[in-house]
Queue: 2 jobs
Job 1
Amino acid sequence: MESMSVPTAGPLVDTFGRVASDLRVSVTDRCNLRCTYCMPAEGLPWMAKPEMLDDDEMVRLIRLFVALGIDQVRFTGGEPLLRRSLIDVVRRVGELPNRPRMALTTNGIGLDRLAQPLADAGLDRINVSLDTVSSQRFIELTRRDRFADVERGLKAAADAGLTPVKVNAVAMPGEDPSDLLAWCLDRGYELRFIEQMPLDAQHSWDRSTMMSRQDLLDALGARFRLSPVEQRGSAPAERFYVNGGPATVGVIASVTAPFCGACDRVRLTADGQVRNCLFARDENDLRGPMRAGASDEELADLIRLNMWGKAPGHGIGTPNFQQPDRPMSAIGG
Ligand code: SAM
Ligand code: SF4
């Protein structure tokens, strides 16, 4: 890097030369599940409506990010399907110049109704989060009896052509991951496991009880033949052919084999803060300046400033690691 001052033009870079191309937008912090690794049984104090970006503000900021080189936008939350205007936001982002690819991460509840309208609005891809295929275990993990809704949502996503439908699972101890893989293979869903991270509001994460990449591979390998897929690029998932392919399974080892050096992500929270990392301790407020009349250039400068401060890695496991103040559900997973 020639100069160490914040760039005033060009793509969104940090001081380590990484370039952001993938924007995660949290459209709400509210949720209708209470996954134990994410939030407490009683839920969280939700953001007040006036604190949240309205549709015009959200679309304006996404337009700025796209002008700064973002080519993929993923809507998340909280549970993004709880934002009533989601379909409108997707449609409007799809109409932007240099239209980004658009993806959604959802728990799948309500997707039976919304998959087709989302596809019609221009959504390109979908990830549905599901950690178990036992409806009893689903209740224990999410504290809600909604397994059948998720099952219907997944089917509706496939019927709407949002294929390949991807399933994201947090690897949970006590769960045989090969049951979920068998279930997804039967239905043509592409499964990716992720290691549990210290992002829960209750701060109860414990590395010693976490199911690691190696635990996962051992358990899956006992039932399926796995062989590595080459060409990982900047994608966080390490992929394996199952029984020779073409079906694959992915493992995202965020904790035991972090991929921060190749990170291309930046995040926008539902209350208009830009964050350069899930684990960032700082964020930059875009909502306040925007409501005070900031120009596009001024907002773009704030986004660049935030990216410039991106740390080399999340530091989980290092002595100075501190969990971020916001839980995953308020950052946007
Ligand atoms: N509610 C939506 C959902 O569950 O897909 C979107 C938001 S959720 C925070 C996004 C993803 O983060 C989900 O796949 C969820 O399983 C994952 N997640 C939540 N807490 C996590 C944690 N502590 N470690 C790893 N992944 C987590
Ligand atoms: Fe809700 Fe998603 Fe968190 Fe589960 S992981 S409580 S579905 S935000």
Job 2
Amino acid sequence: MEEQIANRLSQIDKARVPRHIVVIMDGNGRWAQKNGMDRYFGHQEGVVSLHKMVETAGDLGVQYLTAYTFSTENWKRPQEEVDALMALVVIAIERETPGLMKNNVRLLAIGDIDRLPQDTRNSLQACINATSKNTGLTFIIALSYSARWEITEMVKAVAQEVKAGELAVEDITEDVVSAHLTTAGIPDPDLLIRTGGEHRISNYLLWQLAYSELYFSDVYWPEFREEHLYEAILDYQKRERRFGKTGEQIKLNK
Ligand code: IPE
Ligand code: IPE
Ligand code: MG
């Protein structure tokens, strides 16, 4: 097994590792239920998977990793589960901050942070501040995030600038739009990984995913390990990203 994992790792072309990987960490609840446990244990185990993913991505030289941790729609879950998830975020951040420092990881958050409970916001902000000067992997957690929320906020911000006379309508370009999203300055994802068997985007990074490669895994998130990440990257490296051009053009680098 160990040998097999090492073998997969050795097949990865280190020069073509995706710069930005985004993950929809799905399947925590079903994993717990499958094992006769409460959904909460699935979320707890999901934190372990995320810890391993941050380490593995950093080791591979991935520059950005964005993890869908809690969506705008997830606020509609039973209050008990929402509360447990918010408390788990605090526990995880406090436990993980020393490791993030040691591994030179910078934490960022995207989403409607104002909706989070005060203690969740506080520990998040403390970790963002503590890791702000780290220069390795940028680890972005999407919390209370949805793409439609984000796009709506972007439209409001752009409209305000137009209204204030700071921006002309003719000057609204794709770059202007990108610069007004929560991901401003962060390169678009190269690879999206969704675990847990569903084949949908669930309101994640709709603008940013325009040309990302999509990879779906049936593995439940609490069981997702480095070998699964290697598998996803190897699959990604087999693909030809054409961005609308022909295969011929890509081969000739035109
Ligand atoms: C993903 O796992 C984690 C969150 C959405 C917070 P789920 O909790 O959605 O797990 P399933 O899909 O019910 O198995
Ligand atoms: C998507 O998972 C959001 C996160 C992983 C945080 P869900 O389990 O909420 O997705 P849907 O609603 O089943 O599509
Ligand atoms: Mg789910």
